[in-house]
Amino acid sequence: MPLEILSEYRRSGFEVLSFIRIFHWLCITFLSIFTLFALHGLETQGAPKDDLWAMGIFYSSAAFLAMTLVGAFCAPLVWLWRRNKYLAAQTLPPGPIGYPIVGSLFHVDPQKPFDFFQALAQEHGRICKVYMGSKLFIIVTDPGILRKLFAKTDFYLCEGESISLDTPLQQTIGNMLNDIIFGQQYPPDDPKWQRIQFLRENGVKQLKMAQASNLIPFLSLIFRGKLNEFAQGIKETHSEYQRVIDVRKKDFDSAGDYHGPKCLVGEFLKAKRNAQMKDPQSAESHSFSDKQLCYLAGDIFGAGIDTTVNTIQWCILYLCKRQLIQQELYNDIKTRCGSIITLHDKHQLVHLQAFIFEVMRMKPAVPMGVPHGTTRTVDLEGYTIPKGATIIPLQWAINGDEEFWDVPTVFDPKRFLVSPEESEKELRPNPHFIPFQVGKRRCVGEEFGLDMIFLFLANFLQRFRVQLPRDDDNYDLNCYPDFAFTLHPVPYRVELTARRD
Ligand code: HEM
Prior knowledge:
globular; CATH 1.10.630.10; binds protoporphyrin IX containing FE
């Protein structure tokens, strides 16, 4: 019998023991209540006190014994049932069986669930399973296997003063996204923009409740108020999107030519017009609805903002913590670039690109990857994964795997360079580096995201020296607050010094 099956049996044995323990506690509670009620009943019928206590002790001991016997009879049945369930599912990858209804949910630290999944992968191998609630999750920590798997279509899937860079970053990156999506930018104090930002941040917090309700459906009753608020937030955001879409519609002249700014909304409306010219009744024409466009815009904005802003936040923290690297990057910029850095300078600044990659390896924006679901039973390296399972491409474990990286715990941007020693360096592609995932549903914003990060950091480094305030120098890079979906650092402040040399 394979080792992991034996260990599953052992585990299910432990779970049966816990079952007996829980059963006994329930018995004791039930008995205490039962005895109290029985004694109260007899007392009201006028029975003498001494008799009452003797009878109470007798009844409770007898009932306790009876219940223990029932428990002892049930435990092997439960064990047999769980063993059969396990054997029936033997084609699944190894992993803990978990408790009924909640699975392994209570073993997970909500601050850093990726740590729990990494430990599972270390114990059970590169493909393993875990039940969260009653949902089956398959954790995959091998980029090669993910590449094969996701190629299939069966998945959906201030100088001197310390300041926080959070708001300026949200504003800058948010407006870069607004520009490509809507062809417009919002001033920082625009109330509509502020309201959308608030709704989005609130929505990210409420996402946790939506995720929990997906795992244990009855929780949706408890979180109903918050989930309604979440849905209301989406509705309000879409009404602002609709306002902008209506503005873009006015950018068409009477001949149907578009004269507005180049953006996603404009392109969508043009495609809609072309489809309607061909056949107004076709399914394609109907698919270009305003509702579809609102969801599309929301998806692009939502997927682009936190991933990019958090990556830049981590990069700035590493620049603060590695002053020598910061100075080297600045020297590189000073000797190679003009006064404003554009994408044309990208190939000159390979050190900066390698630095960004190494930060993304150490602190992946989405440490648990973006899960995909199986739409039918699929074969995964000899395991049979049923329809409806969730595949977790666990970047956190891949990025810290000694088989893929030389001393993965060390921050070393040079690992992304072809030749660290020579002055002319080139980026070295690494097949195990998959921050944007792989396959058909790979991130559509990869290039744009990397360009935004590069442009922001290069121009920032050219103008400022950045450091943590003296009293915050013990900042711990390994603390992760409120994990929802993206990995963001504990809020921090920085001191900026303008570069004058
Ligand atoms: C550092 C920046 C970013 C990282 C690390 C990142 C990472 C990812 C990952 C891991 C996925 C899941 C792919 C899959 O399901 O296999 C994804 C999907 C996606 N990303 Fe990004 N992303 C980044 C920036 C962006 C930006 C800037 C945009 C928009 C302009 C964007 C738009 C999207 C969209 C729309 C999807 C869903 C694609 C689909 O399901 O077909 N991302 N991203």
